[in-house]
Amino acid sequence: MTEQEHKDQVEPEVEAEQAQQAEQEEAVDVEISDQSAQVQELSEALESAKEQTLRAQAELHNVRRRAEADVEKAHKFGQEKIVADLLPVVDNLERALANIDTENEANKAIVEGIELTLKSFIDTLVKHKVEPVDPAGEPFNPELHQAMSMIENPDVEPNTVLEVFQKGYTLHGRLVRPAMVVVAKA
Question: What is the pTM of this model?
Answer without folding.
Answer: 0.62
